[in-house]
Amino acid sequence: MENEIEKIVLKLNEIDAVKLGEFKLKSGIISPIYIDLRVTVSEPKLLSLIGDFMYKRVYNDSNSGNKPKLLCGVPYTALPIATAMSVQNDIPMVIRRKEAKAYGTKQLIEGRFKEGDNVLVIEDLVTSGASVLETVRDLKSVGLTVTDVVVLLDRQQGAKQELEKNGLRLHSVFTMEQLIDTLIKAGKLVGPQLELVQKFLDANRQVVVPVQPTTPQPVKSHLSFQERSQLANCNKMAQKLFRLMSEKKSNLAVAADLTTKAEVLKLADAIGSEIVVLKTHVDIISDYDEDFVKQLKALSEKHKFLIFEDRKFADIGNTVKYQYQSGVYKISEWSDMVTVHAVAGPGIIDSFKDSVLQKECGLLMLAQMSSKGSLCVGEYTQQVVEMAKQNQDCVMGFICQERLSNMPEHFVLMTPGVQLNNTADTLGQQYNTPDYIVQEKSTDVIIVGRGIYQSQDPKSEAHKYRTIAWDSYEKRLSK
Question: What family name appears in the similarity comment (predicted)?
């Protein structure tokens, strides 16, 4: 066994998978040694050897009867190892996506499986065990069972203990200490480099890297809009919208992405009785003037809907303040809610506070977007939600694709990219059905654009969307 470990370690060193220098690990620790196993994809014989050795590390002749039903590699470096192991041992795989796609099967776990199947999780190396726990969490969410995890390298910084706390057995081919000893014996690590690495090992051998909280998961909301209006007393516009939805029995917003004021006003008058929000892009209206705003406000009062200017403010605070209050459009004088990006940091919200609170306007933070390849994901989305929580008097809710567990019930969730047919356009816009968005993703307001304003009869089409979305909301409550 020692000869096989030595063979793998020296081959990894030969292909430059063992790197010396200064590297920041995912855990945040600065290390003088970094193991980059991604290069093994270019070494099929080595990849095959690693897969075989890792499998035998868990399942030898004495416990061959406990072989797993499925294999799953932690994305992405471990996927080639898992594939090699699957082919060598004729064991099926499943693949865990880092994020479920908003189109196609929309599955987080891909492959054929049934509830209760035992899965061997495969990782290249572990420090804290956080990536492994994320994968295990998602496997368990679809009813799969995980008891064992196998890795090539254990950096000996808390992963084994952390996984044991979660009922998982960790099997490693070799530890960081064994890797270093092998390189020293082979004369591959000498002089100042050896001293630096040895000091790092001595300093960190007993250091346990804490596992950071995982990404919040989608959850269902079973409170009614009326109940949530009572929770939203910290934000007057959120409260107003919840009450309006309950009163009109509608959770439909229409995006009036039209380029003349006559088109926008005609659409607003036709569909006003069906909607709770009309979303505008005022800067695409070619003949905009103050009279347009007066007429739009009159229609909003006539039909009882709110005006949402989808400006997507994203500049520094001082600039945003002028964009909102001044200029040609004077958005602050007529809009009930506006969208804000978080890329500029929390200061962008501060620039709205005085005017927003005075007028009772609401900010909608862009937590997720419906366009293909959007960067509004993961850590960015989490930071947006936390920023909103710190500014609940100004922020009324989110533009998002799903309700996450860290989104409090008093925030309104609005989802664009909705059509009766879940297709896509040529510019990256992806669509989901009203039923899927409201029932499965538990958002509150569906935003429909072309599916209504490009139809032959916008009013009847709006009524159709309104009915489906409201029925989906009532079904969600009844579950």
Answer: In the N-terminal section; belongs to the purine/pyrimidine phosphoribosyltransferase family.
